[in-house]
Amino acid sequence: MMNTVDVLEAFKPYRGDALVVPGRGGRHWVPMTDNEGLDAPMGDPAMGGHAGFGFGLALARPERKVILFDSEGDILMSLGMMVTIAEQKPLNFYHFLLDNECYATTGGQPVPNAKNVDYAAIAKGAGYPKALAYTEIEDLKNDLPGILENPGPIFVALKVYPEVQNEAIGSRRPWQTRTRTEVIQDLRGEFGPA
Amino acid sequence: MDDVAVAVLSPEAVLDEMRKNDVTDVVWLPDSETNWLFLLMQAEPSLRLVGVSREGHACSIAAGLYSGGRTPIILIQNTGMMESGDSIRGWLMSLEIPVVLMVGYRGYTRHGVNKDTAATYTERFLNAFNLSYYLVEGDADAPRISIAFEEAERTKKPVVVLIADEFHGFNR
């Protein structure tokens, strides 16, 4: 098992000018990023959509790598999305999955069949040309440069410790520094019409 | 007036509207009667077709495409639109994505007796979500598609075009 913050710290040196969709790792990524204008910390507009958003961004900007930190709860809602991604084969898309085996933001209830799902196998079966799985941070650190040097789409499943939230939603401290619409506007400002 | 004579929407007219509005990507899932449009879109070099396996997926994909500077359109059926409620809310409305959704109006009978609950709830769904929409039955209505694009851009909201003829005679 890994800590999400360690995963993001390990990735950070290789970010370059990639677009980053930090998904549920956003609360760790936002304080550590050094290029906020190329980040898309969306929070949770509607569960299950992070993969689609990152994928759409990758299709729109083929000249940039797009790094998505998805979660298993999200992708379970949209397994069919993997088929669409595999069909389009965006060479610039790197699909990391933070698998904490639970719905952490609702108190830590397990996702269905939490401990027995092989997400890398699902990705491979959906047609991703490459799918990997890691449980230890050192293994990930060793392989990360190679993963990001290869063409996408690449799927990387990561077992992470849950960071369970039990307090009422209204009393949680927001980690976002921009609204979602500001994030969209900033991205549009960065690129303009494609 | 002969309803049949006026209610013909050609796929060419729909494609022309897409070209006119500089659509770059069609995020779509086939509906009952759109195969002729599919064949035309496939042959259109300015369009990329992104097929989805569930309609809600189209919303976050379109949001990502728009964020990267593209002009996507969503092409789905009313049944799938209703299935996609939370994705429309979260990934389109709350993010202020000015995208046009072309929605096949399955079950629409014009002035007839409706026998399909897909049609029964379509406009009620749109009204519940406070989504603006335009009805397109035939080629004469096709310019409403451009009106939808203009409204989406002006209001920064998704706008729906209900395709109520389904291209080659669903109601005839």
Please characterize this protein's 3D structure.
The complex is a heterodimer of chains A (194) and B (172). With 194 residues, chain A is α/β, with parallel strands linked by helices. Chain A has one domain (4-191): Rossmann fold, CATH 3.40.50.970. Chain A is 39% helix and 16% strand. Chain A has a 5-stranded parallel beta sheet with strand order 1-2-3-7-6, sandwiched between helices. A two-stranded antiparallel sheet of chain A has the order 4-5. In chain A, β6 (130-134), α7 and β7 (154-159) form a beta-alpha-beta unit. In chain A, α1 (4-11) packs parallel to α7 (137-149) and α3 (50-60) runs parallel beside α5. Chain A is globular. With 172 residues, chain B is α/β, with parallel strands linked by helices. Chain B has one domain (3-163): Thiamin diphosphate (ThDP)-binding fold, Pyr/PP domains (Rossmann fold), CATH 3.40.50.970. Chain B has 8 helices and 6 strands. In chain B, α2 (11-20) crosses α3. Chain A binds chain B through residues 40, 44-61, 78, 80-81, 83-84, 87-88, 180-181, 183-184, 187-188, 191-194, and chain B through 24-25, 48, 50-54, 56-72, 86-87, 89-91, 94-97.
CATH domain fold name of chain B: Rossmann fold
User: How do the strands line up in the largest sheet of chain B?
Assistant: 2-1-3-4-6-5
Please write the CATH class name of chain A.
Alpha Beta
The CATH class of chain B: Alpha Beta
User: What is the name of the CATH superfamily of chain B?
Assistant: Thiamin diphosphate (ThDP)-binding fold, Pyr/PP domains
What is the CATH third-level topology name of chain A?
Answer: Rossmann fold
Number of domains of chain A: 1
Give me the number of helical elements of chain B: 8
Q: What's the total count of β strands of chain B?
A: 6
CATH architecture of chain A: 3-Layer(aba) Sandwich
Distance between termini of chain A? 40 Å
**Average pLDDT, all residues of chain B:** 90
Most extensive chain-chain interface: A-B, 36 and 34 residues
